[in-house]
Structures are given as C-alpha cells and as structure tokens.
Design brief:
Four copies of one chain form a homotetramer.
Chain A lengths: L7 H6 L2 H21 L5 H12 L6 H11 L2 H13 L12 H37 L4 E6 L2 E7 H26 L1 E2 L13 H11 L2 E2 L10 H28 L6 E2 L19 H14 L2 H6 L10 H30 L1 E2 L1 H9 L7 H10 L4 H17 L6 H6 L2 H4 L4 H6 L4 H4 L2 H9 L2
Parallel strand pairs in A: 3-4
Antiparallel strand pairs in A: 1-2, 5-6
Helix pairs in contact in A: 2-3, 2-6, 2-8, 4-5, 6-7, 6-12, 7-9, 7-20, 9-10, 9-12, 10-12, 14-15
Protein name (chains A, B, C, D): Adenylosuccinate lyase
Catalytic activity (chains A, B, C, D): (2S)-2-[5-amino-1-(5-phospho-beta-D-ribosyl)imidazole-4-carboxamido]succinate = 5-amino-1-(5-phospho-beta-D-ribosyl)imidazole-4-carboxamide + fumarate; N(6)-(1,2-dicarboxyethyl)-AMP = fumarate + AMP
EC number (chains A, B, C, D): 4.3.2.2
C-alpha cells in the first residue's frame, strides 16, 4: 500500500482495526447462533455483545503483543477479548477454526472493496456518459495503426470506453458475488464440532452466502476470479489512459489533461505540460494486473489447506483493491476535466488532403462497374501521391484529373464522396446501443 | 499447438480450413443482407451461395500463395473466392474491413471452443459426482499443512472438486457469452459504408450477439476475460492434480493413477508407478495460465485499433483452448479410473495414535469447566507425547492416565470423543448443498 | 510454433529428427566412455557408431509407434535403435535414466538456440550501428511524456537501442553458459550405476559443462534464468518497435517502415501505410515474455524430480526461441530498411515556436542572478503563451518583449540560447561510450 | 511493504529519509563537480556541504507539504534544501533533470538492496554447507514423482540447494552491477546543459558506473533484469521450502521445522506441528515473482521517457527486495534449526521391501546376458508383487525364488545388489564439485 496511491475509505477497509472489528462480528454472531442452539450459555453472548455495545477501542498494540508470544493471530485476538470481557468470553470460537474467521473476514473485506470499486465505476461511467454526449458529434479522425483512417467523433471514443467499463462493472458484480461466501465449518470443514446452522446465521448477518463445501478454507478459485477481474478492469484503464496520452502528444494535441495553475511539468523545462496522470495510470494498471498470477498460483492448496495463500493475500488484497480504487478515481478526474480541442481535431482531420475519404471512392468505383482490384489500384495510385506530398496535394483534385477515374465517376459524384456527415450518420444508432434509447 | 496435447475436435477448430469456412459464412451472410437491402444484386449472393452448395474444397495452398503476394490474408481469401466464383464475387466484403471478418471469426472460434470446453467440464463433473457418491462415506484423514488434522471422507474431497469445477463451468458460460459478439461495422466502426442491419443479420446467423460499439476491432477486454477464465479453470485442474499426486506418494498411497499393463514407469527403475498424468496436468495448467498476461496486455490497443493483439492471439487462441481441452479430458480419465484404497486410508487414519480426535477432547474439557487456555495445555501436553512416539502411544490411554484430565472427564466420556462417525454426521448436508437434494 | 513467425534454422532445431539425433549422440558418446572404462564391450560402441556412420534416416513414425505402446519416449527410441543396430545396442543407456538424455538434449538445444539468437543480435547490432552513424547528427526532437522536450539526434535514439541490445547479448551469453550443462548421473543423480567420468566425456563432446549436482534432473533455475533473459530481450524489442510506431504516426511521420510495391495496407482504405511490422513485434514480445512465468513455476520440482516441467518446456522451448529469433530478424529488417525523413524531423522540431529551448533560458536567467523560482516563473509565463498559440507565437520574440527578462538578458544573449548545435555538442562523447573510440 | 515480512535494514533503505539523503548526496556531489569546473561558485558547494555537516534532520513532513503545492517531488526537496541552506543552494540541480536524481537514487537503492541480499545469500549458503556436511552420509530415499526411487543422502539434498543458491548469488552480483549506473545527463540525456564529467564524478562517489547513453532515464531493461533475477531466486526458495513441506508430512516426517515451546499450531487442534514457515515462504516466493511481469512491461517507455514506470517501481522496488530479504533470512533460520530424523529416514528407506534396489538387479541381469527387455520384465514382475504387498514382501526373497532370475544370478550375487553403500560411493565427488576440494 503506497499512501500516495490510496484513498481513505479503501485504505481503512484494510486497517488492523477494521479487520478486528469484522473478526469480532463473525465470532459474536456465531456465539449468538450457538446460544440459540443451546450449545453455549445465553449469558455468554449477552456479555460479549454487552461489551461491544460500550464501543470499546480496539487495542491493536495489545493484540500484537499477545501474538508475539502465541505466534497465532486469532488466538491473540480472542485472548485480548477475553481480557476485556471476562470469563464469559471463553465460549467464543467454540468448534471453530482460525480459517473460519480469517476466510470469512477476507470475504467481507473483498465484498466491501468490490462495493467501493463498483461505486468508483459508477462515477466513471457517469462522467464518460456526460462527456460522450457533450462530444457526440465532435468530428475527429479515427486512427488505425496510429495512421489516419476515417472520421469518427470524440463522443464515440468515450462511448466505447463507457461500454467497456460497463462490462467491467458487470463482471465485478459477478466476481463480488462469487467471492462473498461465509465458511464456519470447523477444522477440515466437516462441521464435526459446529452446527451448519451457525454458519447460515453468520452468513446472513455478514451479508454473505454460505460456502457449500469448504475444507477449512474457502476455495481460492473464487479469489483468483476476483483478482483476474480486477486485472481486466485495470487493462481497460490502461486503454483509456493510453488514448489520452496519444491525444496529448505535441503533434496531435486534440485533448489534454487539466493543468492546474502553479503546477510544474518539469523541473528543467518550464514549457512542459505532460500527461503524467495517464502515464501514472498506465503504471498502476501494471500493478493491479501483477496480482493476477499469484492469485492463480494460490488456487492449488495442498489437501484440505495449506497457508501459502495467506502471505500473498496480505499483499494483493490491499494493494490491488486500493490501487484500483485510486486509479478509477484518478481516471474519473482526468475524463471529467479533460481539455478537449475540437478545432485541433478538425485541423488534424483536414491535414491529409482528403485521404480519409479514399474508401468511399473505392466503393463508388466498384459500384460504377470497376473490378475490386482495379478500383483499389486507381485509388491507391492517387492516394500515394497525396501521402507523399504530406497532405499538400488534394485527393479530390487528383481524382478529378485521373481520366480512368473520371470515366467512371463525374466530378459531382466525386465531390459527394468527400462529405464528413456521411461518416456520422449512425452515431445515434451506436449511442442508443450503448446508453439505451 | 503440441500434437500430443491435442484432441481432434478442438484442433480442427483452429485449422486454416475451418477459419476460411467461417470467413466464407460471415462474408456470404453479409452479402445476403446487402442484397436484401438492395445494396448489391441478389444474383451476387445467389452465385456465391450456389458455389458454396457444391461443397468446394478449401484450397489453403492457393490462398497462401496469393497472400505471399498481397501480404494481406483477407484480400488473399477474397481473391481466391473470386477466382472460384467469378465476377459476381466482387460484391463480397463491400463496405467491410478485414477486422469485421477476422474478429467475428475469432468470436465464432472462441464460442465453439467454449462449447467444447463446457462439454469437457460436464464430462468431468459427471465423473466427479459418480466417484464422490461412491466414496461418500469412505473415511480418510483430512490434512492441513500436509499434517493429519481430522477425519473427512474421500467423497468430500471429490465433492469439493465438483463444486469448484461447477463454478468454473458457470464462469466459462459467462465468458463465452461475453466474447461471442459480431462486429460488421466497417473501417473505424462507424457503419459509414455498411448498414448496421447487415451486422444484425450476420450476428443472428453465426449465433452471436452484436457488438454495441466496435472501433474496427471488437474490444479486447472481452478476450482478456475469456483467457483469464481459462486460467482459473486451469488452476483448479492443478489443485485436483496436486491432490492425486499427494495421495499417490509412496508413504501415503491412498489413491493411484490407473497403471496400464505394459506401461513402463521408468526406463531405469522397473518398480516405479508414477503419477505422471497428474504431474503432466500440473505443467499443462501452467501453460494455460501463461495466456492470461498477454491477453491482458492486448487490451490497450492504440486509438481505434492496432494489430499487436493479432500475433498474440495466433498463439494463445489455439494453445490455451486446445491445451485446456486436453487437460480436462485427461483429468476426467484420471478421476474415472483412479485406483482408490480405502484400507490404506483407514490405516493412515489410525497411525497417529488418535491425535486426530484432540479437538473434541479440547472442547469437552472446556465444556466441563476448564478455561480455554487450560484445556489447550492439557490436551497439548498429552498430544505431544503421542506425536513424539510416532503414533506408538495412544492419546486416549494417556488422557485416561492424566489426573488433571480425569478430574474433568470420565473414561467413558473420553472414549466417546474418539468416535469416527462423529466427524461424518454432516456429510449428507454438504452433499445436498453441492449436488442438490 | 506458428509457421509464419518461424525461421528454418531455429525451427529445425526443435524438430523430432534433431531431437533424436542429439539423443543418439548423447547415448553413443556415453557408450564410448563406458567402453573406455571397460564397463561394456568395445564392440558395442563400434557397432553403434558404425551404424551411425551409414547416415541412417531417423524413422520418426516408427519411434512414435513404439512409444504408443511403451508410453515412454526414451525407451521407444532405444528400442528403435536396437531394431536397427542389432543386439550390440543393448549396452546403450546402461546405468542411465531418461532424464540424463532428455535434460542434456534440452541443454544442447537451448545452447544452440542461444547461439542462433546471439547471431541474430549481432546482425541487429550491425544494422543499428550503421544507421546510428548514418544519422549521428540528424537533429530531431527528443520527447518526454510524448511532449516535445529538447533536441536530440536520430542517431542517438539508435545508439541507445544499440547499447540496450548489446546488454541483452551479454546477458544471453551468460544465460547460455548457465543453461548449457550435461547431466549423466543416473537415477536420483548419485552416479550409483554410472561413473562420473562418463558424464565428463559426454559433456566435452557435446560442448557442455558438467552439472555439479543433479538430482536425476538438471535444476530448473537454470532454465528459468534462460527464459527470463529472453523475456528481457523481448521487452527491448517492444521498446524499439514502439519507437518506430510512434515515429510513423500520421502527425509525426519522422520515419516509416519500408512499404513494398504491391503491398496493401488495408482492404478497405487504399491510402494506408501502417507500421504493421512493429505492431506485430509488439505482440510477439508479449508472446516471448509469456514464457517467463511458467519457467519460474517450473523451478520448484518435488524432491529429486517430478515431470511437471516437461509439458511446459515442450511449449516454451520452441515457442520462445523461435518467436524471438523471428522477431529479432524482423526488427533487423525494419531498422535496415527504415525510411527516415530528416526534413520532417526538422519541421517538427520547429513547430513549437522555440519552446524546446526554454531550459537554456531558465539556466541563463539563474546565472544572471535571478532565483530559481523567479526564473522558472518568467520562462513559464512566456512559454505558456507560445504553447497556447500552438506554435504560432515565438518564444524568443516574447522573451525579448518581456521587460523582466530583458532586465537580465540582452537580445543577443537570448538569441544565443536558441542555437541547435548547443544540444549536439556531446553526441561524440556518447557515441564513443556506446561504440568505443 | 508488509511489516511482518520486513527486516529493519532493508526497510530503512526504502524510507523517505533514506531517499532524501541519497538525493542530497547526488545533488551535492554534482555541485562539487560543477564548482570544480567553474560552472558554479565554490561557495555554493561549501555552503551546501557545510549545512550537511551539521547532520540536519530530514523534515519529511515539510517536504511533503511543499510537494502538495508544487506537485513535483524533486522541486519540493530542493525548495526545502534552499529554505535550510539559504541562497547559495540556488546552484543545486543546475542543468539537471529530476530523472537524473530519481534514477541515480534508485540505482543506489537497488545496489544497496542487492548487497543486503547477497549477504543474506551468504548466510544461507553457510548454513546449507554446514548442514550438508553434517548429513553428508545420512541415507534417505530419493524420490522421483513423489515415489521412492533409489537412496541418496540428506546431505546431497542440501548440497543441491547450496549449488542452486550459489548460482542465484552469482546472478545477483551480475544483476546488481547491471543496474548500478549513474545518469546525470540532463533533459533527454544530451548533456546539453551539464558536462559529462559531472556524471563521472557523481558515479564514482556513489559507487556506480556511468550510464553510457541515457535518454533522461536510465533504460529499464536493467531493472527488468534485476527483478527477473530476484524472481529466479524466489523460485529457488520455493523449491527448498517445498522440500521441507514434503519431508514434514505426517506420513514422511523425515524433517521438521523447529517448533518453539509455547507455540500453538492450531487454535482448534492442539496436536498440530505444521510447516508454516515454509508454506509462508512458498507464498512469499509468489509475491517476489509477481514483480517480474510489471518490470518487463516497464521497459518499453515512449520515446526518450515516460513516467509509467515510476508508480510500478514505488511498489516493486521495496516489495520485492524487502520480501526477498525476509524470505532468505527466514529460510536460513528454517535450515539452521531444522529438526532432522535419520531413524525415520532409514525406516522409510526400508518400507518398500527393497524395491529401491531394482535397477541394480536390472543391470546385473543385462550384464549376465539377458536382453534389456527380458531383464526389465523379470524385475518388474517381482517388483509389482512387492509393490502390491505394501512392502510386506521382500524383493530379494522373491527374486531368489524366481527360477528365471536365479538361472542368471546366484543368491549371493543377488544379495550384493541390495547394499546401500553402493549408492553413496560418489557422494564425495559431488561434494567436491559443489563445495570445492
């Protein structure tokens, strides 16, 4: 966890205090269910909840000190609770195993993390939608291979991003539900010493579903799927960040990250206005993705469980969620305040001497009776001249002067092929598909 | 693609011939739709489909030869079709771009691959269910950290695997539907030269949904999610394969891969019977997983598209699906024919002098009034003696001889704590959860 | 292995025939050494080498057929040799284990692959050096964050690439030597049934060093290091390929992949000239890198060996080396024939109204007595105006008109700060460092 | 950085204070060199070093506060220094760019980190060597595929680990020297505003070599190689940790992690003694390895530099080195105090009824004139009976009773084949190879 790439709510979710609070809730709800089943005295549950009602501070240092002796975190926590509550606390954790607490706690944390990330995605989607509609009909050049292709609109670029992040949101909802299970099944998961109804009670109270078959641990394919889903979302962040970085290039400059007054782009070069936020997002995407492989390696635990997954999750649990939360918020800010330059987009559109309309001419020639191969040849030989002139020659002019072309298409027909609106006629269709009608 | 790790149906799906057949279908269905819209002559579509009805062989070598000149695969294919069909073929591909064909074809291939994999999973699930019920009540030791913990049944192990692969199946269905989209939207995806109704027609005919917003290419977050899902399933294969490898260890030998007569385990050591299939599966899982990172790196294409994803997909498309198909089938065979040794399981269960019952004694002492800490100490001091005797001492005997223990629990009460059935009483509950009632 | 991304020498190295030839050499050299030690009859070695001297064809199909029965590749091979040679062949492989043959063969293959790759790197380095000197003093804008920074030369860009690939070459030499070890140590590596002098003899004959301690297998940290090194080289390929892709962007167009007459850039847009080779290299880099993680996962074999590494190596051994060989050769071709446009570089250099000289002014102001903060402010306020004018205003003109600036620097002093040669004065120093004096 | 997996020296290396101290040294040494060249007043350097000689506390909070305004870390630091030193500090950083400081600082940190890790490796190698000699001739069963193969010694296992970590050490030395370069080359690396002799001076003072050609940044292939090397070492840790985990399995129990008095293995099962340290190491290995892919992705920066690498390095720089440092120290402790049980090793060796000697019999039969195929068949048919008896039958007895066998080998000859020392005769050879004579 790197403070500069953290936001408070997500960071708090992974604090020791939050973890201990969740542990308490799991243990105390389990105690309630035991008491209801007559396994433990009702007084025990009352004493424990009574203490909790006093809103006691979590003494993390004291718990750490006990753990330094016992070398076991859950026992340390229970020992501290017993110190606070008194002898009634001795019924806590009865028939349970540490993993019941740890794995269910992790499920709660990942579920809450997913909820924060879903809210982040909603905020990003809102901004993308607003700016997409703002630039729904702002023409700009579409580029394949970094080379001018045909016109699109800036709104279409954002609509694509919207659709992509909407998919990411749907996948995250699925991954959240997949990972949000509760296991209170005792050693090796047989419920030998704990009634399955206790698990059901805790699951309901903690907002989880029950784990159908645990083996002391909740199976790690659930977590692998969760982190893989974060990795896909991170890759979508990289895609949109890369788009902004490209648009801000000196030679392109169709859009720009907002540049705050007083900000310094470079200690050496005062003129610089750099896309540092989106470059940073590119790096953060790599960080989030780096959680995927260890999460996959965590699946194949030995027999009913080993603890190799635990250290991995201490890193990737906080790091992947905190970093993705930060990255989504940062990206939302970038898009929200993005400086967009329609004049420059138009200027770039025009700089290729009309080459972007070459396909329409190709089709028209075909429809006028030329073979596909001949049409291609006719267009290409004129297009190449324009290309080599660096946009100084005009494709339309050259075509009008090519007798093989004019034998098939009149000047007026040729001119009609260079109309920009032709390319924008289905923007509404696409927006309807993406945002609904 | 490694022939020894391939099965014919999946391999055929990735052959040049299959690819060209799918290309034809996409182009020809698009032509139908164009003809219906009056954009091209109906005769063109009739000519093309008429030729197809003659069931022509796909001349892969000829297409390759054309591509060697044009350096463009789709143009090479269309040129070949034109050679075969004649001039009516010139209306094919009108307003379309190569990516319309390539990306929609890949969607078809990945969808069909997913269907094969889902069938593989179904076969595996069947076998797991059968063998889980066969050994529903076969007692065996549950192990955490590779150390004997408490009794489970062999059926529970397989039920866990069933639940895990059932989750994998559900995720694969979602990933399949996510990746199965059709884009026929022309250069940079604006439908400038092709009516969106053509896309809708092709999508329906090819069993795909439409891509709401493509940018010449179908966005690669879909593919990333697909390969990530394969990676999670591969990790589950690794988990079950690792279980078998452990069970077959010389000292454990509770189960064994089927050993065919005439098979040689080692060229040097004739006595060897090695878990080579599950070791192989462990390696194949690594191979499938290795597709995940490049698939994630493929997401951030530049602007409306670049072609960096293409070479990656030429490898991982076939490799990940063919390898996973093979691995699932191999795993199904391993489980189907797995030699299971219940006597050995019982023998291993008994070898620790009753230590596996220590938790029940712990709980009983607590319930008899001892503090948790005292109970733990009483059990541990006797358990350690048994442990150090390598199972020669009996925990029950030692407890009966410990006055601090007998002050709390009578010999009869102690004996009752060493009953195996106690651990199996919720197996039905778990089976009901996993397999339904 | 994808044929279109393969070159013949490297592909041949991974053919079954080459593998069997190497197996033969290992077995036959070992037999020689056994005969020299008197362990086997000299006639046996003579018979085996005598057969080999007839240059027998390797009957891959026959060997495959035997393996289909024995399910063991080395036994199948030895059985075939025995069929060919007759009873004297029965002394082959005595005291050896399959891994002795397989692992030593893989070492030979990886060493030869490394030699091919080193030759590839030498060819690339030659081309980089030639073109670096060709453009040693061709001015071009240096860019940080994609934004114009200060002038560099195009030769410096290539010198950087040269230095990077020279490092890659040195690392590959080290990785080659690391992986090129011979193990002929028998089951579990104790030499119980085979004299260590046999290993020494085979090692010398095959051009390998001896493996100091093998455990039936050669330890896989060696292979992990090898594939990791390939992954780093692949990443350097991605870096240089990305540079070319950027330079070829329509708006930048300072360099361009060679475009063959008759080549079609796009089936739909005849005007396109796309950087498809370098985009392809970007994807191929991802493929090579994808071998790193499974190679790392292969290290932790169980006890003296398991066979999980084997299937992984069947994929990544050929794929990573063949792909990298192809990619290096393709990159060499791209750089060799790269179209470089110095006029366009100059035009781009000039387009920012002299902003690229802002740092020199900053330093001059500091040296003229202004505080660093004041200097920065003075430059930035003028630079921002130029920036916002899209290069229409001139920084030099604005500075000359700023009284706070002219209070510190005279017009002549300001003009001197806008001299391009100032930036190139240490190019020789850098070239001397990179290429030697 | 996870405190529980950190050790103080390595953690301190990555603290803000250490970073600022290194920044100061770089800037101040550069200032010295500038003063020596007459570029800045000598008084400036004297003032700066004079202040430093007062051993001033680094006011991290103040620097953070300035950065919150400037949004630029190096400028914030220099501003703070100027506040402390006064106007003479204005000559600091002249002609330099932030990357000169940041990248050279990172090189210093990675070099120092490597030195700590090399010391860790030395400590581990010492322990491995001591325990290897202690158990040089302690017989134990060698296992391939988890199945008993032939005898080895426990010392050989440790000698293998020694050789593997010695390779890791050599690779780390190379990676350290590779990454330890100094770049003080100014914006885009041309030395336009800074003399190359300044770089040479700083390099010497900081214990680095000069970067031959930087482009504002030090090329990231160096860092990629560094982290890849850490990943290989981590994988070797996983291998040895996995060995211990296997040996501690209940059924094997040939070795055991030291178990401290008062330690609790399980909150629920008091009898457990789990290999939790080596399981933890398995997970930590995954964490260190997870740095490799993002480090590889960092190589392809855009043009002369972008800043996408920076956020990645903020995570993996500390995480990979701190975690590996902790893991090496933990592994050293595990091996140092490992409880080794030679009696149990012997017992396991004997449990297979002599099957581990099967190869010797196979070879003897061949040498007595049987074909390899017949020999294999004769041994296998007896070995399979022993195998199926679970070690109750004796291979020697069965062979003595097999007339086809006794036709070739006398009882005395057979008995001689079951001698354990036969397998240990080359242990000295291997130890000499590994540890030197």
């Amino acid at each position: 966890m790197i403070p500069r790439y953290s936001r408070p709510d997500m960071a708090a979710l992974w604090s020791p205090e939050t973890r201990y609070r969740i542990w308490f809730e799991i243990e105390a709800h389990a105690l309630d269910a035991m008491a209801a089943l007559g396994v433990v005295p009702k007084e025990s549950a009352e004493a424990v909840w009574g203490w909790w009602a006093t809103n006691p501070a979590i003494d993390v240092e004291r718990i750490d000190a006990i753990e330094a002796v016992t070398k076991h975190d859950v026992i340390a926590f229970l020992t501290w609770v017993a110190e606070e509550v008194g002898p009634q606390a001795r019924f806590l954790h009865q028939g349970m195993t540490s993993s019941d607490v740890l794995d269910t706690c992790l499920a709660v944390q990942l579920k809450r993390a997913a909820d924060l990330l879903i809210a982040d995605l909603d905020a990003l989607l809102d901004v993308l939608k607003r700016r997409a509609y703002e630039h729904k009909l702002t023409p700009t050049i579409g580029r394949s291979h970094g080379i001018h292709a045909e016109p699109v609109t800036f709104g279409l670029k954002l609509a694509q991003a919207y659709a992509e992040f909407a998919r990411g949101r749907a996948r995250l909802v699925a991954a959240r539900d997949d990972v949000a299970t509760c296991a209170i099944s005792g050693a090796v998961g047989t419920f030998a010493n704990i009634d399955p109804r206790i698990e059901a009670h805790v699951a309901e109270k903690m907002g989880l579903s029950i784990e159908p078959v645990s083996t002391q641990v909740i199976p790690r394919d659930r977590h692998a799927m969760f982190f893989a889903t974060l990795g896909v979302i991170a890759s979508s962040i990289e895609r949109l960040a890369t788009e902004v970085r490209h648009l801000q290039r000196t030679e392109v400059l169709e859009a720009e990250e907002y540049f705050a007054p007083g900000q310094k782009g470079s200690s050496a070069m005062p003129h610089k206005r750099n896309p540092v936020l989106t470059e940073n997002l590119t790096g953060l995407a790599r960080v989030v993705r780096s959680a995927v492989t260890p999460a996959l390696e965590n699946v194949a635990l030995w027999h009913e469980r080993d603890i190799s997954h635990s250290s991995v999750e201490r890193y990737i649990g906080p790091d992947a969620t905190i970093t993705l939360d930060f990255a989504l918020a940062r990206l939302t800010g970038v898009i929200d305040k993005l400086l967009v330059y329609p004049e420059r987009m138009q200027k770039n559109l025009d700089r290729m001497g009309g080459l972007v309309h070459s396909q329409r001419v190709l089709l028209a020639l075909t429809q006028a009776g030329a073979s596909r191969e001949d049409s291609y040849r006719l267009v290409q030989r004129n297009a190449m001249k324009v290309w080599e002139s660096d946009g100084k020659l005009s494709l339309l002019d050259l075509l009008k002067a090519d007798p093989e072309v004019t034998a098939l298409l009149s000047p007026a027909e040729l001119e009609e092929k260079f109309d920009l609106d032709y390319h924008l006629k289905h923007v509404d269709t696409i927006f309807d598909r993406v945002f609904g009608q």
